[in-house]
């Protein structure tokens, strides 16, 4: 049920109804009514919830158990594949070059 998904997502983030309401620019009563199922979920709030929790609208509406959109899943897969290829290339290096690469990455990732 929609109300359970909203409540579940809110509790996962460990935020109060008041905090979620403030983030979405609605009243705490609106969040309470949505979570209790006593109010319908307006499209603008549905979109804001989706963006805030970084989940698909289908997930919030219980049309899908996949939290993220297909676009997000494809992007994640591409990043994972790229990271896998980098790790494989790193593993093919000899130990001295691995050390050099590791030191370079540490140096480049230091905050300025």
Please specify the SSE layout and strand pairing.
Elements: H1 2-12, H2 17-24, H3 28-36, H4 43-53, H5 57-60, H6 70-92, H7 95-109
Helix pairs in contact: 2-3
Summarize the model shown:
Keywords: DNA-binding. With 112 residues, this protein is mostly helical.
Structure description:
It comes from Ruminococcus hominis. Keywords: DNA-binding. This is Helix-turn-helix transcriptional regulator. InterPro entries: Cro/C1-type_HTH, Lambda_DNA-bd_dom_sf. The protein is an all-alpha fold and 112 residues long. The chain has 2 domains: 59 residues, Orthogonal Bundle (434 Repressor (Amino-terminal Domain)); 40 residues. The chain is 72% helix and 0% strand. The longest helix has 23 residues.
Number of domain units: 2
Secondary-structure element sequence?
HHHHHHH
CATH class of the largest domain reads Mainly Alpha
Spatial shape? elongated
| Derived structural class | mainly alpha
Task: Provide the descriptors you would attach to this structure in a database record.
7 helices, Helix-turn-helix transcriptional regulator, elongated, mainly alpha, Lambda_DNA-bd_dom_sf, 434 Repressor (Amino-terminal Domain), single chain, 112 residues, 2 domains, Cro/C1-type_HTH, DNA-binding
């Amino acid at each position: 049920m929609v109300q359970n998904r909203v409540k579940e997502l809110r509790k996962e983030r460990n935020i109060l109804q008041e905090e979620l309401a403030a983030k979405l620019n609605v009243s705490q009563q609106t969040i309470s009514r949505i979570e209790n199922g006593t109010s319908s979920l307006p499209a603008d709030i549905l979109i804001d919830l989706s963006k805030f929790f970084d989940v698909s609208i289908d997930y919030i509406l219980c049309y899908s158990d996949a939290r993220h959109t297909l676009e997000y899943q494809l992007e994640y897969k591409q990043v994972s594949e790229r990271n896998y290829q980098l790790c494989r290339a790193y593993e093919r290096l000899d130990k001295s070059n691995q050390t050099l690469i590791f030191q370079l990455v540490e140096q480049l990732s230091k905050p300025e």
